[in-house]
Amino acid sequence: MKNINSYRKFSRNNNEPNKNGDYVLYWMQINRRFQYNYALEYAIGWANKLGKPLLIYEGLSIEYPWACDRFHAFIMQGMKENLDFANSNDLNYFNFVEPKIGGGKGLFYRLAENACTVISDEYPVFIIKKHNERVADKIDVPYTTIDSNGIIPLGVTGKDPYSAYLFRKTMQKNFKEGFTNPPKKDPIEELENRDKVVLQKDFLEDYPKADKMLENIQETISGLDIDHTVGIIDMTGTRQAALGKLGHFIGHSLLEYDEKRNHPDEKKTSGLSPWLHFGKISEYEIVKAALDHQPEGWTLEDLTPNGGKNSGFFKGDGNIESFLDE
Questions:
Q1: Given pLDDT bands bounded at 50, 70 and 90, which one contains residue 161?
Q2: Whose CA is closest to 18, among 60, 46, 56, 55?
Q3: Among 2, 103, 234, 275, which has the highest number of CB atoms less than 10 A from its own CB?
Q4: Residue 208 pLDDT more than 90?
Q5: Pairing between β-strand 143-147 and β-strand 9-11 as defined by DSSP bridges
Q6: What is the mean pLDDT of the segment spanning 202-207?
């Protein structure tokens, strides 16, 4: 019987790994974090299997839809955090912020030329979906995307559920297995080959690392050809900020959620949407934090599939039930 996480894997071509490549490449497109990331975990598995170092690439285009100061700042703050984390953990991490339209053209393919295999994030919408469909046939090594989008893999359904009722039925059927096969908290701890990946001088001349651009994000953004009318707000796009937001919600709002979530003055919703959208925190972490606050004695054995109804599956505290149902 297949483990539920096998449904997270999408093989995008039939190419064989290049065992003479310099590294395994992980393209961090949407799950912009080093923790609880199935795709990173899978990439590390391949690096260990081939005895190769891992190169992690995180980029930011200037041409994505609705590119503006607000989104750019949020993403770049997360990239700066990732840079600091990579440096402190001796990881091979290449970041790139496109300075002008077309400035990043060809970058990914240049990195893929020297890779043994390429792993990236599975994502069903936005530009990531188009990227994944386009690049697989243009490289000579395997291109595999891994779904880290939720507790339940996208691949367990033959087609998209078109109603909340149908989604709940699928969720209730698969929740326990998905939740008990979580992503690893710190997959990089298992990376065996820590050799330094040295990128060619001409490559770095064509695509300079974003380290300096991340030192003064506001100044960098002011010189980019993006929408400057949507300004930067007081919301930091880091994983640390996401964890702080989660902790505040769990401690101050979760157990009042059912009654007060729709009251605009109470502010009892989680507020985690921006960090989820840009992959700074995993759904697993949020669900686990909520379930850890179920009444004493509650266990996963109390889960009660009920044919897709919007209450009664999680049992326990009604506030937690309401939050997780949404």
A1: low
A2: 46
A3: 275
A4: yes
A5: antiparallel
A6: 98
